[in-house]
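Posting here for the record, re: FE2/S2 (inorganic) cluster.
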Amino acid sequence: MEHFRKLGIGFSPPAIQVWPEKKLSVNLEKIQIVAMSVQIRFLPDDVVVVAEVGEPLLQVAARAGLSIPTGCLMGSCHACEVELEDGSTICSCISGVPPGQDQLTINLFVDPTW
Ligand code: FES
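Prediction output follows.
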């Protein structure tokens, strides 16, 4: 820094803020981890398997011994489409077991064009 002063070059130290080190303290007794199980029924074979909320549907189906056709695995091609109880369809490659229900029925399509 002295060298810069002799040359007539102004120098100011960078503005660095040093925050006091804070330690994160977590009371593990107050944390509840609740894994919610959902009963998944795959039609038309009527295969029932228990899954966890958020578990990928392709993984649940594979665990149930079922194969859902896939293509892009990105939600674009709809090769993996399955039908829910209410008649709506979802792409199983980008869907997990939804929260808020104890049971879920999934109808697997058999689309000969895929
Ligand atoms: S595999 Fe293409 S949308 Fe799921």
